[in-house]
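Archive entry. Fields below.
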Amino acid sequence: MADAAQPARDSAPSDLRTEIAAWMAAHLTGEFAALQHRGGPGDEEADPELRKRWEQEMAAGGWTGIGWPVEFGGRGFSIEDQVIFHEEYARAGGPGRMGHIGEGLLGPTLIRYGTPEQRQRFLPGILEGREFWAQGYSEPNAGSDLSNVQTRCWQTDDGSWRVSGQKIWTSLAHESDWIFVIARSEPGSKGRHGLSFLLLPLDQDGISIRPIRQMSGGSEFNEVFFDEAVAEADCLVGAPGEGWKVAMGLLEVERGVSTLGQQMHFAHELQLVIEAAKQTGQAAEPAIRARIAEAWGGLRVMRYNALRMLAGGDDLALPREALIYKYYWSNWHRDLGKLAMDILGPEGEVPSEDPVIRRLQQIFFFSRADTIYAGSNEIQLNLIAERGLGLPREPRP
Amino acid sequence: MAFSLSDDERMIAEAAAEVLAEASDSVAVRACCEAGEGIDRALWEQVAGELGWCAVGIDEALGGMGMGVLTEALLFEQSGAHLLCAPFFSSVALGANLLRHVASVRAAEAWLAAVAEGRMSLSAPLPDSPHWSDAAAGVRAEAADAGWRLMGEVARVPDAAHVDALVCLADAGDGELGLFAVVQAAEGVSVSARPGWDATRVFGSWMLDGAPAERLDVGGVADGALQRAAAIARLHIAAEALGGAQRCLDLTTAYVAERKQFGRAVGSFQAVKHRCAQMMVEVEALRSGVFGAARLAEAEDDTAQLAAECHALRLRADRAFFFCAQEAIQLHGGVGFTWEYDPQLYFKRAQAARSWLGRPERGGEAVAAHLLDDEAA
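PREDICTED_STRUCTURE:
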């Protein structure tokens, strides 16, 4: 059913769009039907086991690693085709990907910085939806100031590494098989220098995982403790001391691919908000109407902003529309969460059994994290001012 | 939808920026404001004649360049950035716009050809109402001789005093709304104008006392056509606001980079950096919105969708422009408050624009109605 919030397909559907839509219609059914629109940020505890099976379903359909080069088992899709995939996947309500850290972060890191042996060993598990990865970057004292990493690593006589320290905000660590970490390999080094990038299996004595309870009651995030945890000699990616370059190298790569898919998912959420407004009668309230109009207009702009980013090509010097993007979507989403809760009123005050209302409540809480993770508002504004406007950089200690 | 500019689009936009940066600089704009008429006649001749900007969006068959809505919007971005004192906005975003969307093709032809050649400046009323049809209130058309005569006051006309002709709406009897064109030189026309706080665009009234007029519509103005014209007018208002907001950001960034206090450039203080960054977020979001709405308009899509988008866009533009003008004043410190520094010019323009074709908040209500009250298929 067409609705005012959902963007229409641009002009004639390409063969790829039709193919993906058809595949999703045929496969997001049966037991997988329960996963529709589930498992995204703020909802990552939604049936991890079933979502892992969905990864395997995606793999069997040839939809994993679509952006990876063909020689590494991927499909070598252009940016444009990757965007089409993400958009149609989201339009069909495809669930949040359990494999997104492996496919989106670790895989491309190994493709760019890994040895042939590392690629051979780890890429197939990701592509086949068999092996799941967690990202070990942030620490209690290394959040916005990520280079203040204190977790240590050192090499032993047999060439293997030991890691001691702590990582935090690790999504779904308890559901993952492996973790990649940046740790300080050069004693006495500070900041970005002297770090190394290591791969460790999570199921070992030296690693313990403790879930962090969030304000919404769930626990997507974890603390991960390393007590002389073991990484094999072959599990160092890049040279010792190059860890920062390896960890950050990816963040320069085209990030625009998932923007339209994200915006499609947000359109679905906005539609839920609009329906809640109609059902509760809040759709007649002038102030609520104004905020709904604002949310809709803001989403149209988000879409156009993403399209501008994608039209910009592969220029790595971040243009202005890319610089504002994270700040823009996260604050839009936070406002949406507040609007949803205001619409629900007293009914919203009780944790709901109704999955739709529960979803809106989750957005209200989790969107408070949207403006904090992946570069907080304050960090984004620094970046925009410095890179976008050429204003002086923050003084470094 | 093509989200990058074609070479032609880019060239036209860059050339416009260059021309206006020089010819419509602060000194030139202030001179116009002092003179009280809101027009730089030499620059208008150049814009309409040699540069041919009025021709940009008009069909090639009529002597235009046949470029799209986005190209026009890019020109308006520059006219807004440099507060161009000339009836460019009124001729193209209002007059020619109504001719292209509301007038019959046959009636519009001669007028549009004249506009394209730069021989004819136009304007139209901008009522304090989201419905352009409300501009017909108090204006009556009577069939007379072989044509029509108009009676009443057409108020809120930008560049009223110096345009060659007015495109206006009038009650044509039997509840029918008609679109008419009246030349200023005609009998029964008297024009008054008065500079407002924003002296870069001087509004006025045309008093019509049996003035002969050409009727441009056939069988009454179609609501959908008027809606589409209004949407595009709002889009161009937003495009001008984008230019103004960007200019406020540019002035501010330049100032805070130079101004030193406490031994360093004030732009090195994080609070100041963040305020400038927030301006940039508003500007770039608005830019994306203008781009998207313009491409949507070019795709000849659903008018209801375009109308909603342009209402939302105009609301965003008002907020972004006023915010940037306000921040420009604030971040200039004491001098931001003075007549001498330029933020005040943009501040006044931003406020004035709120009253053009309905308050922005009414536009928000129109979007809400589209989303919440219209039953989509």
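CURATOR_NOTE: Chain B touches chain A through 48 residues (CB under 8 Å).
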